[in-house]
């Protein structure tokens, strides 16, 4: 399935379950070879002589570190261009920037604001474009989440990727944002059940729900929505949240602190709601204290640092598959 991937990775919604699975399996392979078998660079240097432009209009720790180091591993050059280096869509149109930049590099990894910015880059670029986060999607994050879930639940019960993923219950307690949208684009397709809880003021957009419902039906999974965290975590194997204030929403912080009252993930929430005995906690990071208690975040149930490290292996797999093609 790796050889059938679309040219770009804007959202996992554009990929089939098999294509998503092939990337996650490739990431597991890279992790084994590199971390446990000591292979310090890709023997074929698939990106030798190639440059990947990293256009970041927002801050990043994990995504940047994972991507620059992955490009080095693959033998290529990472050209980091932050928002003060080039002002995407400010000095010239995104369309023009896409055409110019892609005429000189072999791939583009871009962190932008509006979803439309990533689709414009993909449309007018002549080389593969991978989304490093936009306001609707974060595909490389959810690849890392799937790898982490496979590792954790596969260890408890040996099994193939989909054998492990199918039937797991994921509870999202938090904002209506890029992370849960990307989960909805990928997880139901993989046979995972989702229970999505956001404050009523922050609903999941209808088109995202519709697609998730279709994917879920095909994979015999379920997706439900509610506004009561206690009800939402019932039977959860995985409880996941994210910041209540995404990058760019800083001015809304005070209001959001009020709107998300009662949404902090805690041991008490999981107990009252009857989460499964061995539930785990996930968070894409960076974390703020309000959305999850320290007790949960630093507990044995929390796999957040394994999840963060897996950004590296999944980005490595995605870049190897997409940027070394041509
Ligand atoms: N999870 C994630 O994308 O983190 P960064 O914003 O630090 O890259
Ligand atoms: N929802 C967060 C995710 C950061 C990785 C944001 O967009 O800021």
Automatic annotation (TrEMBL):
<keyword id="KW-0028">Amino-acid biosynthesis</keyword>
<dbReference type="Pfam" id="PF02729">
    <property type="entry name" value="OTCace_N"/>
</dbReference>
<comment type="pathway">
    <text>Amino-acid biosynthesis; L-arginine biosynthesis; L-arginine from L-ornithine and carbamoyl phosphate: step 1/3.</text>
</comment>
<dbReference type="InterPro" id="IPR002292">
    <property type="entry name" value="Orn/put_carbamltrans"/>
</dbReference>
<feature type="domain" description="Aspartate/ornithine carbamoyltransferase carbamoyl-P binding">
    <location>
        <begin position="7"/>
        <end position="151"/>
    </location>
</feature>
<dbReference type="InterPro" id="IPR006131">
    <property type="entry name" value="Asp_carbamoyltransf_Asp/Orn-bd"/>
</dbReference>
<comment type="similarity">
    <text>Belongs to the aspartate/ornithine carbamoyltransferase superfamily. OTCase family.</text>
</comment>
<keyword id="KW-0808">Transferase</keyword>
<dbReference type="GO" id="GO:0016597">
    <property type="term" value="F:amino acid binding"/>
</dbReference>
<feature type="domain" description="Aspartate/ornithine carbamoyltransferase Asp/Orn-binding">
    <location>
        <begin position="166"/>
        <end position="319"/>
    </location>
</feature>
<dbReference type="Pfam" id="PF00185">
    <property type="entry name" value="OTCace"/>
</dbReference>
<dbReference type="GO" id="GO:0042450">
    <property type="term" value="P:L-arginine biosynthetic process via ornithine"/>
</dbReference>
<keyword id="KW-0055">Arginine biosynthesis</keyword>
<dbReference type="GO" id="GO:0019240">
    <property type="term" value="P:citrulline biosynthetic process"/>
</dbReference>
<dbReference type="InterPro" id="IPR006130">
    <property type="entry name" value="Asp/Orn_carbamoylTrfase"/>
</dbReference>
<dbReference type="GO" id="GO:0004585">
    <property type="term" value="F:ornithine carbamoyltransferase activity"/>
</dbReference>
<dbReference type="InterPro" id="IPR036901">
    <property type="entry name" value="Asp/Orn_carbamoylTrfase_sf"/>
</dbReference>
<protein>
    <recommendedName>
        <fullName>ornithine carbamoyltransferase</fullName>
        <ecNumber>2.1.3.3</ecNumber>
    </recommendedName>
</protein>
<dbReference type="InterPro" id="IPR006132">
    <property type="entry name" value="Asp/Orn_carbamoyltranf_P-bd"/>
</dbReference>
<dbReference type="GO" id="GO:0005739">
    <property type="term" value="C:mitochondrion"/>
</dbReference>
């Amino acid at each position: 399935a790796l050889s059938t991937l679309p040219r770009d990775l804007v959202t996992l919604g554009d990929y089939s379950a098999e294509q998503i699975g092939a990337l996650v399996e490739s990431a597991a392979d890279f992790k084994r070879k590199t971390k446990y078998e000591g292979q310090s660079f890709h023997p074929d240097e698939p990106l030798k002589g190639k440059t990947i432009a990293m256009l970041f209009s927002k801050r990043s720790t994990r995504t940047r570190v994972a991507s620059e180091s992955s490009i080095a591993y693959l033998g290529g050059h990472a050209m980091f261009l932050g928002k003060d280096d080039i002002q995407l869509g400010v000095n010239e149109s995104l369309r023009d920037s896409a055409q110019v930049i892609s005429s000189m590099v072999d791939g583009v990894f871009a962190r932008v604001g509006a979803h439309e910015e990533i689709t414009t880059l993909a449309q007018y670029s002549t080389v593969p474009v991978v989304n490093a986060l936009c306001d609707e999607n974060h595909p490389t994050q959810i690849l890392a989440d799937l790898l982490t879930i496979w590792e954790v639940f596969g260890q408890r019960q040996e099994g193939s990727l989909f054998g492990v993923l199918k039937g797991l219950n994921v509870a999202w307690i938090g904002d209506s944002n890029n992370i849960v949208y990307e989960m909805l684009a990928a997880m139901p397709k993989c046979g995972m059940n989702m229970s999505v809880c956001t404050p009523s003021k922050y609903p999941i957009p209808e088109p995202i729900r519709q697609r998730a419902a279709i994917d879920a039906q095909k994979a015999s999974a379920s997706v439900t929505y509610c506004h009561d965290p206690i009800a939402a975590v019932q039977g959860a194997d995985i409880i996941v949240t994210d910041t209540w204030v995404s990058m760019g929403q800083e001015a809304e912080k005070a209001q959001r602190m009020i709107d998300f009252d009662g949404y902090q993930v805690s041991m008490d929430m999981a107990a009252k709601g009857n989460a499964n005995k061995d539930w785990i906690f996930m968070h894409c990071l960076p974390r703020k204290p309000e959305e999850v208690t320290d007790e949960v975040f630093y507990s044995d149930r929390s796999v957040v640092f394994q999840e963060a490290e897996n950004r590296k292996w999944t980005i490595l797999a995605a870049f190897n598959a997409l940027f070394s093609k041509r």
